[in-house]
Prior knowledge:
The protein has two domains: about 10-190, Nucleotidyltransferase, domain 5 (2-Layer Sandwich); about 205-250, no CATH class. It is built from eleven helices and five strands, in the order E-E-E-H-H-H-E-H-H-E-H-H-H-H-H-H. The protein has helices at about 60-65, 70-75, 80-90, 100-110, 110-115, 120-130, 140-145, 160-175, 180-190, 210-220, 225-235; strands spanning about 10-15, 25-35, 40-50, 95-100, 120. Strands 3-2-1-4-5 form a five-stranded mixed beta sheet, sandwiched between helices. The radius of gyration is 19 Å and the shape is globular.
Amino acid sequence: MPPRQPSIIRVIDLETTGASPPAHGVCEIGWQDVALGEDGRWALFGDGGNHLVNPGRPMSPITTAIHHIRDEDVADSPWWHDVARPILDPWPRRIALAAHRASFEEQFCTPALTRGADWICTWKCALRLWQDSPSFSNQVLRYWRKPEGLEHERGLPAHRAFPDAYVTAHHLRDMLNEASVAQLIEWSKLPGLLPRVRYGPDRGKEWTAIEDESLQGFLTDRDEDIRFTARTEYERRRGGGQIRGSDPVWQLDLE
């Protein structure tokens, strides 16, 4: 009898013709699984993979300059609807899907293709767990944290689907060994909780260090992550919670 296959969280990365479906389409999907071992620790599982996809529209020079996938590279590749479901929905083993800044992948990986899967956003979770990072991009986290076991060449080139999924999977593994699956999913459903102010006279300061007047101005910012963070700090000052990532700020009534 073959050994039982463990439940997995599948990390997904997409390369696309642009950021706004249906005007833009997927030209490559990559994946890497993370599984809970018998020792109670999460680890990368399997080899992962990638698949080129015919996006059904031409590549722009701007997007080609990012991932270097050309029209001729995908001309004979299968369509997205023929590729996506088996990769996104390895039923019944999959617990959730994950991606760095998962809101981008979720635009293309619709509930119909994922069987309504929960998503973990490793960017939002990094904001909570690793607040001292100088930045929170996939690659900055890679070189700041230096995840154990990450093979440098296997994680290159950046901005291709499998290498990016492979790097993200190391971040997810370490997050899962610090916090529960349920907690990471919960954080991922909320806007990002930013550790530092992004712009203006207080740029770079922790939110706990800015004056009340400055904080008030951020409560109506156009960026939902800034509004959420400012509201969380506002509630903290009123005695309603803590801004640190380990505290249950997600329980606040933000209406």
